[in-house]
Amino acid sequence: MLDNLYRQVIMDHYRNKRNFEEIKGENIKKAHYKNPTCGDVMTLFVELEQDRVRRVTFLGEGCSISMASASMMTELIKNKPLTEITSLRKAFEQLIRYGNIPDEVDLGDSLSLQGVHQLKARHNCALMTWQALDKVLKDEKDYGGFYS
C-alpha cells in the first residue's frame, strides 16, 4: 500500500511539475546538467538572497524519477537557508544511495523516492537536480553540498 502511495506521489510530481519555469534577473544563478547515464537534461535556476535560496525553478526533460525529484527538490528548498539545504542534500543522498530515512531531517515528498536505492542505474536520475544545485552553489560559503 505504501509503495502505491509513493508511486502516486512520484507520478503527481512528474505530471504536475512544481516550479517548472525559467526565472531571470541579476540575482539568478543557473546550471545546466545532463545525466550521463540516460540523457535526461535540466537547467536549474536559483535566486539567492543573502544566505538563503529565495526561489528555485527548473526546466528539463527526462524520466519520471528525474523530473519528479526536481519538482520535489524545488518545493523542499525554496525559502530555506543554505545551511539547512546542506542537511537536506546530505539526507537525500543517503536516502537514494542506501535507503536510509533520516530522523532529524524532513525530506517531505522526496521520501517517496526511497525505493530508488534498490535501482543503482536510477541513482543519477534522482540525484541530478541536487548535483546541479551543487554546481550553482559551489562558491557559496554557507553551502557544503554532500562532499563537505
Automatic annotation (TrEMBL):
CDD domains: IscU_like
Name of one Pfam family that matches: NifU_N
Source organism, top-level taxon: Bacteria
Domain NIF system FeS cluster assembly NifU N-terminal: 6-125
SUPFAM superfamilies named in the record: SufE/NifU
InterPro entries: NIF_FeS_clus_asmbl_NifU_N
NCBIfam families cross-referenced by the UniProt entry: SUF_scaf_2
PANTHER family: IRON-SULFUR CLUSTER ASSEMBLY ENZYME NIFU HOMOLOG (PTHR10093)
Listed name of the protein: Fe-S cluster assembly sulfur transfer protein SufU
Species this protein is from: Bacillus songklensis
Gene it is expressed from: sufU
